[in-house]
Amino acid sequence: KKLFEVKRKDQMNALKNLIELNDVNQQYKIIDIMLKGLFKVLEDSRAVLIAADVPPDGPFPQDEKLKDAYSHVVENTAFFGDVVLRFPKIVHHYFDRNSNWNNLIRWGIGFCNLTGVFEQGPHSQVLGLVRPSLARRIPSP
């Protein structure tokens, strides 16, 4: 949990910088790159965890590869939540075109809900807010 808190602090700083960037075109470009990377990591991590049959509600894995995959799922799912809540129009611009991303993030949310990592503390509301924002379709201008 301590490593998660450190990672979340880094993510929030990156998000703050993105918010302060007053160039919408740059925000689109950065978020596009960020989402592609985030979902690649989420997809790879899911494959590792499923192959090793790691239950989200079980003990934290001891194997380094499994620890990394577990952490990546929790961190990237939370970060996606932060980004979609702050930049819904931009995220939907890319997200709505990729059904695999929808499946991945829903799996990630389900996994995270079972871990207990989000039950208390400053990040407890993120997952609950993400699902409704995914259901919303943002009209294009």
TrEMBL record:
This is Coiled-coil domain-containing protein 134. Pfam families: ERK-JNK_inhib (PF15002). InterPro entries: CC134. PANTHER family: COILED-COIL DOMAIN-CONTAINING PROTEIN 134. It comes from Struthio camelus australis.
